[in-house]
Specification:
With 513 residues, the protein is an alpha/beta fold. It folds into three domains: 185 residues, Class I glutamine amidotransferase (GATase) domain (Rossmann fold), CATH 3.40.50.880; 188 residues, HUPs (Rossmann fold, 3-Layer(aba) Sandwich); 96 residues, GMP Synthetase, Chain A, domain 3, CATH 3.30.300. It contains 15 helices and 18 strands. The chain has a nine-stranded mixed β-sheet, with helices on both faces. Strands 12-11-10-13-14 form a five-stranded parallel β-sheet, with helices on both faces. α5 packs across α12 and α8 packs antiparallel against α9. The longest helix is centred in the middle third of the chain and has 20 residues. It starts with 5 loop residues before the first strand and ends in a 13-residue tail after the last strand. Bound molecules: xanthosine-5'-monophosphate. The site of xanthosine-5'-monophosphate has 14 residues, from loops.
Length: 513
Amino acid sequence: MKHTETILILDFGSQYTQLIARRIRESKVYSEIHPHNFSIDKISELSPKGIILSGGPMSIYDEDSPQVDSEIFNLGIPVLGICYGMQLVSEYFKGKVEPADKREYGKTDLEIIGNSKIFQNIKSPSTVWMSHGDYITKIPQGFSVVAKSANSPICALSNDDKGIYGVQFHPEVAHTTEGRKIIDNFLFGICKCKPEWTPGNFILQAAEEIKNKTGNSKVICALSGGVDSSVAAVLVHKAIGNNLICVHVDTGLMRKDESSAIIKMFEENYDLHIIHIDASEEFLSKLKDVIEPEKKRKIIGNTFIEVFEREAEKFGDAKYLVQGTLYPDVIESVSVKGASVTIKTHHNVGGLPEKMNLKLIEPFRELFKDEVRAIGKELGLPDDFIGRHPFPGPGLAVRVLSDITKDKLDILREADSIYIEELHKAGIYNDIWQAFAVLLPVKTVGVMGDNRTYENVIALRAVTSTDGMTADWFRFDYDFLENVSNKIIRNVRGVNRVVYDISSKPPSTIEWE
Ligand code: XMP
């Protein structure tokens, strides 16, 4: 998508780089992350209103430390260096950076000691978040020191004439109480941006572009009911109406009443053309007696492609496939991940476009999840639909541990639905990143009335997280757990025990398989 105003973020490997982008976008200005060695030609092409140099884990004097093409300081575009980025500014303008005796990490008080556009209307002192091992010992030429902290006499550098700034702390982190205002000063006071990056503007522009791109061709969308693909479908439908064909494959691995609820919601509210395929028998027969989680995942991924392809062939003239790819999946980060092992093979619609010779429409390639939610809201999707917890592609297949049967799936569906309903009733659903029930492949002894029972165990999982990469278990009240446990055991036939999973990720994962 063409953006009239962009802030470019050059990434030097900081864990907070994505956070910088999100803060800027929350201020309604579009921002893009690129690796630190993004070329000057590409920068000129992008023509950003401002450039932010992120922090990074290295010292600028380390061998192989990431550098920046110093030409960027001569483009006449405002620059803000954060932490490592500030040291690059200092280095180029002939200041001096030296290792500190010990790493400064955590909250500290910032005192403003000079005038600068970057600190317009900022309280002093205020709390800021520090995380650095080097500090500046000689002021770079043309700059003035405009803030200090107890441990860093040079905590912020300013050159209002050139529009170049550096801060030792992290304004993008919530602990920096004036951080948002400092970023806004850069965006609006210094770069002269306008706050026009809004869901409404995005929708108008994206719809126009999708219409131009696809002309009169048919476009298909695999509508799982997940937030990203659902919002994408509604957006594309807004652009091209009934040239969009949505295919919903019921794998038989969905939650209770989920497939029918999804179809109903879209048909009633959006007049979407949805083809509903009940492929549950096909999935279940292929999964019969399969125990190994990776094998389950691969069977589901492949079966999905087969079913979808078979159906979509009926629309041989379709040229495009809609996917809900998000920005975090496409950011090219400088952090070297090394040869990572596959923990879980993810199932999404990967593999389809090449096989079917379809071109992709990915309207959210530049968006974060919360932005997709905001767009969904603007498009009128109900709040409870947009706020739903993530649900994995392989569905309940990775929550019925060991081999899968329809009976086991039904037990799990009942237990899960009671659990989720209780979360809503208690008003805590939205405090949790993801909650679900798991059916364990063991039976245990219980007593009901005067009789011995020998039945299934349900494990409850609930985690907090910001991105699913790390997670902590949710601290429920004991009363809540007791209530859910009683309700499940009383109402779900075949369950006589409920346990709660208190493992964090890592070392566990969120899903059990
Ligand atoms: P784990 O279990 O790896 O899960 O800690 C992290 C997040 O990813 C979701 N998940 C999936 N999402 N396709 C998806 O689209 C998949 O195959 C898949 N497997 C796990 C999981 O629910 C959690 O939110």
